[in-house]
Amino acid sequence: EYRRLQPNAGHIRTVYLLELLLIFLVVLLLATWWGLRMAKGVTGPIRALVEGTAEVARGNLDVVVEPTSEDEVGFLVRSFNQMTKDLREARSGLERSTAEIEQRRRYMEVVLRNIGAGVVSVDADSRISTINPAAQRLLGVPPGVGLAGRKIEDVLTRPEHLEVVRDLAAQLRP
User: Fold this and answer.
1) Angstrom distance (rounded) from CA 77 to CA 92
2) Judging by beta carbons within 10 Å of its beta carbon (0-12, 13-18, 19+), is residue 89 exposed, middle or buried?
3) What is the pTM for the complete model shown?
4) 113-156: pLDDT as tens digits
5) What are phi and psi of 71, to 5 degrees?
6) HSE (CB half, 13 Å, CA atoms) of 164?
7) Element (H, E) at 131
8) Suppose 55 and one of 60, 169, 170, 174 were both cysteines; which one would form an S-S bond, judging by CB atoms 3.0 to 4.6 Å apart?
9) What is the pLDDT of residues 1-20, one digit of tens each?
């Protein structure tokens, strides 16, 4: 029977090789399809995170990325959403604080403008931050002259005034 089949051995081998090649190609196509599907499952949420990050960089903190899985990528998406929520809350708190500080600053300006005593505030570099009209009058500075930002030594002409300011500054510094 072997001798009877031997002349057809080449054909049988070719048929088997073609069958193996066909099975190999089917398996290869299925593996490629499955790999692309898996890659899309990972790159989709990452692409959404990249787009969300770009929105946050433009200042839009209302970005929410929908988590699509419970794995590490899903954890990353939930962390991103928590981060944007925390940033929104921090920005809101900062805006409230800024508005409150601005309101207090305006109130202090009104009080300083209307108080009868002379008040001069000086920063750490001995530059005048604010000065009220009463202080300008006491120092002999004409109204409307801008003194903010100038050194206190340049404004005070009397040595006794300069000495008082130096003594106060020495007491306030540690």
Assistant:
1) 23
2) exposed
3) 0.55
4) 788 788 888 787 778 888 888 887 777 777 777 777 888 777 77
5) -90, -160
6) 7
7) strand 128-131
8) 60
9) 878 878 888 888 899 999 99
